[in-house]
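Section 5: illustrative case.
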């Protein structure tokens, strides 16, 4: 790759320059040095995730390619968010490649011009083959027609169920009506056994409730306005609330992933719908008692079909203030190449490339019924699992209010109307901040 580049304005930070030799390179920011010390390492900041551990095992390959050490700092998701906010607000140069959550972080990061524009790089390299990435994750890594991130881990909803309990019921439910009926039939709440367990905490439940919302024909917004009080959204709220209220465990309105998952893992529920990326928790005998009886099924169909999400849960972006943006791109290009994605997916970590999902060797790491559920989810999936806004946490709090009302048996239409009014006002302010 050529090292020559031209200086760019801050708004165009990260846009690409055509080098004299005809190669593509990430341009330097005006007024900032455009080179780091030859001894400086390439610094990756990553989440404490199996993908980070897997890719780190291969660092020798990329270090040889770029002639530079690669070091990775691994943080929890909360630590990661706090670190990015502090460092990027200060235009820090001590992060080169960032592992981040596209649906939680990317819109804000792009709005603040914290991430480099990769558009020309990903689309201008035939060997990289940007079109090979699944459409929904690809879209989620694009902001205002600029590619600002590359997906590395994807997830869809899966229905986890007990094969031993549904054998006499005709197999796992294919529709939401069947899920409700089976959950009611199998629940034995007096003896601490539940038909269905799921997230019920106001903020944390929104991403998983999204699949119910889509399958009832709804969405969070339409044309920039709130749609959480539509007939379809109210039906989804009422369905999910009834499912948890009548067949779920006590205290479900306080349950996040960390509280709901162990209930199913310890054999105390017949059904659980959540991200397919967590499946290994149920196969680990040190934390699960259902590893011999668990089954995996696609998300059940509602009135509008089986419309779960298909999202990039994690992606790689380049810090716009990095002094090693060319080497950072070489890392991203290597880590998300067709060959590396196939290698990582073959180890059981779901990637975003169509070629990997079409390769039987990469699917062998997953249980066959889970692999089929993932494949179908990739074909059907909606490209978001939460409102597409700058202030995602606040939006989830608002949208989650009718969920809690539904679980508690309160007046759902009234709660939805109140939340709609608050969400509509929020969207006006959020869009104003975005300059829309």
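Designed sequence:
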């Amino acid at each position: 790759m050529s090292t020559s580049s031209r200086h760019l304005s801050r708004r165009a930070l990260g846009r690409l320059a055509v080098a004299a030799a005809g190669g593509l390179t990430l341009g330097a920011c005006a007024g900032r040095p455009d080179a780091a010390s030859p001894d400086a390492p390439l610094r990756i900041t990553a989440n404490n995730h199996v993908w980070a551990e897997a890719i780190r095992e291969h660092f020798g390959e990329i270090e040889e390619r770029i002639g530079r050490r690669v070091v990775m700092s691994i943080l929890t998701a909360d630590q990661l968010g706090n670190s990015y906010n502090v460092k990027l607000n200060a235009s820090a140069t001590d992060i080169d490649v960032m592992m981040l959550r596209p649906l939680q972080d990317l819109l804000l990061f792009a709005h603040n011009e914290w991430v480099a524009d990769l558009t020309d790089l990903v689309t201008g390299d035939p060997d990289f083959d940007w079109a090979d990435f699944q459409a929904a994750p690809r879209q989620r890594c694009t902001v205002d027609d600029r590619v600002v991130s590359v997906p590395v881990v994807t997830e869809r909803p899966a229905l986890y169920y007990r094969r031993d309990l549904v054998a006499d019921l005709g197999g796992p439910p294919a529709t939401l009506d069947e899920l409700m009926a089976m959950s009611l039939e199998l629940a034995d709440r007096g003896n601490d056994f539940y038909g269905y367990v799921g997230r019920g905490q106001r903020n944390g439940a929104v991403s998983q409730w999204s699949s119910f919302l889509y399958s009832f024909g709804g969405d969070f917004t339409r044309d920039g306005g709130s749609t959480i009080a539509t007939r379809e959204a109210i039906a989804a709220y009422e369905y999910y609330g009834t499912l948890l209220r009548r067949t779920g465990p006590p205290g479900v309105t306080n349950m996040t992933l960390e509280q709901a998952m162990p209930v199913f893992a310890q054999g105390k529920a017949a059904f659980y719908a959540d991200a397919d990326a967590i499946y290994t928790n149920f196969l680990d005998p040190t934390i699960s008692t259902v590893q011999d009886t668990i089954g995996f099924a696609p998300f059940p169909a509602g009135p509008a079909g089986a419309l779960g999400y298909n999202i990039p849960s994690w992606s790689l972006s380049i810090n716009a203030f990095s002094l090693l943006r060319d080497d950072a791109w070489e890392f991203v290009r290597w880590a998300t190449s067709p060959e590396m994605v196939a290698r990582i997916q073959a180890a059981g970590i779901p990637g975003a490339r169509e070629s990997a999902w079409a390769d039987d060797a990469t699917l062998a790491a997953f249980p066959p019924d889970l692999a089929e559920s993932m494949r179908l989810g990739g074909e059907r999936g909606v490209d978001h699992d939460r409102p597409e806004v700058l202030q995602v946490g606040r939006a989830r709090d608002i949208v989650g209010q009718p969920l809690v009302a539904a679980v508690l048996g309160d007046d759902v239409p009234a709660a939805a109307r109140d939340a709609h009014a608050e969400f509509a006002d929020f969207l006006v302010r959020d869009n104003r901040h975005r300059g829309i």
